[in-house]
Amino acid sequence: MSLEEKRVYVTRVIPQPGLDILNTNLKHVSINTADHLLSRKELLENVKGLDGLLPLLTERIDGEVMDTAGPQLKIVANHAVGYDNIDIPAATERGIMVTNTPGVLTHATADFAWTLLFSTARRIAEADVFTRALKYKGWGPMMYLGGDITGRTLGIVGAGRIGAAVALKSRGFDMKILYTDAYQNETLEKELGARKVEFEELLKESDFVSVHVPLLDTTHHLFDETAFKLMKRTAYLVNTSRGPVVKEAALVKALKSGEIAGAGLDVYEEEPKIHPELIKLQNVVLAPHIASATIETRTNMATMAASNLIEGLKGNTPPNLLNPEVLK
Ligand code: GLV
């Protein structure tokens, strides 16, 4: 079958330049134009007969989806850098390529980790609500006291692309950097004097802990009761990685009991559900998984996912192939 005859499904409207790449190359591109999450049933109905699928991180792409699509399914091009929503071994077993969008969202996500860090430490969400409600009746020496940032210790959990970018952006704030990772990060050590430490030491020493690990069996509930007990009572947690890395019930307890000072969250354990107690707490800033949400970054993610998909359908090795063993 020629390239242009191949069938592709996009599970949600993505920035136009990504769709343009698909439409320039293919005749049969269908897109879920409804502005809501695709249900499992809708997903299964729409994947039948596909050659390529372009999903979001919100869709679980497992063996059932792949089998429902059929044996001609060649590539799943995720519109995200994280790919815990895709069963890679199941794809590899079926000879299906899987790709992601690394690199293009590093800075937007790192910038957003800083956004959350600032907003939690300086209580801007609470202060905005207060000011908007016209409750500001004059400057007060005890109003909205937060935590200092400059000169404090920043702990980076996972010093890959995004974690390292967060650390490097601390330069203007003269911070001491600690990090955990399987690998030594020479750039961080040379440029910032960063120190690779054990997880426990990072928790004990850091004033801010920013999480940048992928969701794996080994990182699931990495932040549990024990972790929060080790953190300083004045420390803040920032999570822009994946929700289940943090045990939300334990975080709620830690925030309520003052075991930690606050948290800035972009991701949740059972997205889009949010622990009801989190919503009631003042010492947490909540965002709806928007760390990569800038016009430029989302456009780059869309064009990268679409290009990966087209390369795969052409029979080439897509640039961001996650399971190269599939080609063997
Ligand atoms: C966003 O969470 C992504 O993985 O791209």
Notes on the protein architecture:
- With 328 residues, the chain is α/β, with parallel strands linked by helices.
- The strands form 2 sheets. A 7-stranded parallel beta sheet has the order 8-7-6-9-10-11-12, with helices on both faces.
- The longest helix is centred in the last third of the chain and has 20 residues, at 295-314.
- 36% of the residues lie in helices and 13% in strands.
- The model has no long low-confidence stretch (mean pLDDT 98).
- Residues 57, 80-82, 105, 292 line the site of glyoxylic acid.
Assembly type: single chain
CATH architecture of the largest domain: 3-Layer(aba) Sandwich
CATH superfamily of the largest domain: NAD(P)-binding Rossmann-like Domain
Would you state the CATH class of the largest domain? Alpha Beta
Q: How are strands sequenced across the largest beta sheet?
A: 8-7-6-9-10-11-12
Content of β-strand: 5-15%
Main attributes?
Rossmann fold; 12 strands; 2 domains; binds glyoxylic acid; alpha/beta; 7-stranded parallel sheet; 328 residues
Quickly describe the structure.
It is built from 13 helices and 12 strands. The chain is an alpha/beta fold and 328 residues long.
